[in-house]
Write a structure and sequence with these properties.
Number of domains: 1
Oligomer: single chain
Strand content: under 5%
Largest sheet: none
Order of helices and strands: HHHHHHHHHHHHHHHHH
Shape: globular
């Protein structure tokens, strides 16, 4: 049973990472003029893939936060890697001749936000862990719903996303892993999960245009003003609906994750930090090399989607190899090595 449990979570992290990479490959195709299927895929993936990643991070955070002292050395690499990614994007913006703003280093957009937000989630949970989970979740969701009315949060130190996604981390922290494992293993739950995913996939395909209006709710960084004047006042309620739908779809996906070890998934699932750090710079490189022109030439969506899926698997496997892991491990080791050094007298 323990080995199955570990394998299931490795499989989950691997599948989610494949979806993250695939989603980033296809996201530019959600622009006007491309087939609507890309918007349907965006709605489907972005409803659950980052919430699920954050939920799993919270689920396993008890291993780190339950040891008394705050594990600052273990968590600081998230901050360093986040700002290294931001520095990369500043270089890309310079290449694209965008104006450089001195304070833009603190605007954590693209993928840089997640690693910094993860650090903040651990800090917040460390301070709140002695409180009852129901109160933490209640206040976290209230603050998240209210945050969308403030148009100034945005990407500055990823504050908007920290408010919006923290409830998923807290939910993971307060969830008993073994009880969740037993719940997800039930046959009735798996049948219900399959039904949920089929119905949700059908909904985002059939009603793609009206549902795409709610894209700002999925990113966590956009204020309710971007929903339009009519929906602005309903923003808080719509975010609650988003939490419900996202949690249902997330649990449905987790229920269908295979429990047995799969070599490729194990390989990828154990190296998600390296993949996450490196994947978007490589995706950006592919787009700079002319991927949009290739897509324009082969506009038949199934071909592009299959190519993106194959590229996602290839990139995840590539970025799990030692040359890429070495740098990430070096950053982690910069701080963790001090825990192994004996005190000098």
């Amino acid at each position: 049973m323990p080995s199955q449990r570990v394998s299931q979570w490795d499989n989950a992290k691997a599948i989610l990472m494949l979806l993250v990479v695939g989603g980033h490959l296809l996201e530019p195709l959600t622009a006007e003029g491309y087939p609507l299927i890309y918007r349907s895929i965006f709605l489907f993936l972005y409803t659950f893939h980052m919430p699920a990643f954050i939920f799993i991070s919270g689920l396993f955070s008890k291993n780190t936060l339950g040891k008394g002292e705050f594990p600052i050395r273990k968590l600081l690499p998230f901050v360093v890697l986040s700002f290294l990614l931001k520095a990369f994007y500043l270089c890309i913006d310079t290449i694209r001749n965008k104006d450089f703003m001195p304070n833009s280093i603190f605007q954590l957009s693209n993928i840089a936000w997640f690693l910094f937000a993860l650090f903040i989630f651990y800090c917040m949970m460390y301070l709140l862990k002695s409180l009852k989970g129901k109160y933490v979740l209640l206040f976290a969701m209230v603050f998240a719903c209210m945050a969308g009315y403030n148009g100034r949060l945005g990407d500055f130190f990823a504050v908007g996303r920290i408010f919006v996604f923290f409830p998923f981390f807290a939910l993971g922290y307060y969830t008993d892993r073994e009880r969740l494992q037993a719940f997800l293993a039930k046959k009735k739950v798996k049948i219900a999960a399959a039904a949920v995913l089929v119905l949700f996939a059908a909904a985002v395909i059939i009603f793609v245009n009206p549902l795409y209006t709610f894209r700002p709710l999925l990113t966590g960084r956009n204020p309710y003003q971007e929903l339009g004047n009519t929906l602005y006042y309903w923003g808080g309620l719509l975010r609650l609906v988003y939490y419900g739908v996202s949690t249902a779809v997330m649990l449905a996906v987790l229920a269908l994750i295979p429990r047995r070890a799969v070599k490729l998934f194990t390989f990828i699932g154990q190296n998600t930090l390296s993949i996450y750090f490196w994947h978007l710079p490589l995706v950006e490189a592919l787009y700079l090399l002319g991927i949009p022109a290739w897509v324009e030439r082969y506009r038949f969506a199934p071909v592009v989607i299959l190519a993106a899926a194959a590229a996602s698997v290839a990139l995840c496997a590539l970025l799990s190899l030692p040359p890429f892991k070495t740098f990430v491990n070096f950053v982690k080791g910069m701080f963790q090595k001090y825990d192994r050094e004996p005190a000098k007298h």
